[in-house]
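Input for the complex:
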Amino acid sequence: MESPELVELRRLRALPPLRRWLGYFQLGGPGFMDAALTLGAGTLTAAMLSGARFGYKTAWLLWVSMGLGLFMMAAMARFTTRGQGAVALQNRHHGWLVGSLMTALVGTAAVAIIFNYGQYSLGTHLIESLAARVGFHFPRQVNWVLYMAVTSWLTLSYGRGGRRGIRFVETYMKLSIAVMFVAFGACLFVTGVNWPAALRGLFVPWLPPGGYGLDIFVASSAAAIGVMDWFLFNQAGLARGWGREHEPLARFDMSFGLFLPFVIVNFLVLAVFAETLFVSGAHPETAQELAAALEPLLGSTWAPILFYIGFLAVPISTTVGMSIAGAMAIHEAFGWEHDTSRWRWRAAALLPQVGFLAVWYPRPVFLVIAIGAFLSLTDNIVAWSFYLLLNDENAIGEGRSHSRFWNLGLMLQVTLLNSIAIIYVFNRLGWWFE
Amino acid sequence: MRLEQRIGPASLRAWGLVLNFFANGLLLYGAIGYVSDGSRVGALGIGALVSLSCVLLLSSPSR
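Predicted:
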């Protein structure tokens, strides 16, 4: 018997675009999971810094970088809707070094563990600031327990009771993004928008002169989405049982679930800082300093509270997304079945919770450097692998790419990721700009 | 050009990716000199030309 979702998909296909998209929005999910994962402490700090330093001038990088990333996401959608796990495909055609090691264990699982330190650090700081705003003392040395309880519960809800648990977490991710829209949008309503400058920033490319500009361009365009996002989209789609007929839904999901939320949320944050810190000339460095510097500039009582609530949705959803992606990666790397009711799954999913140590200690620097180096040097090889698989008839048969435009987008993404690896080596050799 | 044709251990498409990587390196090496003091224009030009050729050639889907 056919699944009700397939029947619904066929019904939607016959509807006019707007009604069809509304239906797709309800059925979508993996794209929103990816957006919530990508909109983490690092991405939002970059948007805040850009707004505070350059005003609206680098806003165009938001849609260019995510737009380029969509070509690789479309490749993931193709693998998924042909019932293929990306890592399993890589292991079969390019070896375990590229699949299990570069993509799953280091590119996803290790990143989830190490980068969750940053989410914990930001999340507990925001809870402390929010509590202080409403008259409570709730220091991060205590509130990490609340952060851990909420994110662990959400993470372990994925797959609990089958599809219902998956839909629950996907719905949570959609709501998180909605909270970010409302909170940052309300702050922007308070600060106002310089529309001519905003439109110029969005559509007229500008970069700071010299090597710094080259750095910003390469880093922003290549790093908007990476290995973990590609992997999660593929696995979350497979968990939903997506097949051939889901490909239009998958493409809608990556455009309206990932691309639009990424661009809009980042733009809102960048704009808030362009209208406040850029104008005042202050230049704080970290997310915590940036948020603290913004607080008095938002004026009224409710605007800073809304900002903190919206900002808190950022690390929580990223921790949950990374933990699920990390568990999937460990299972894929060893060829284990994704059984969310087993202790093996729970242990793998909760590994990133070690990030609670960030409340007392900075991230383990040697691990951050080692993983950062490994990612810089291997992300491009993972991208080569996916590009080759998409063009390999032996790998996905008739599902292979027949489009020059699609391949062109993938090659541009590959070239940017190559540049990251090359710049890393040049930096080590002392050849890159000071 | 048949990009799926095998040459040694890999297909022409895979060798194209390797060539593109080295061309990207040459392009960036040239870009550093050009942005810093206007030097290495040759490396920049060759790197850009080979990178562009690789990207365009490797955009062809397999038949």
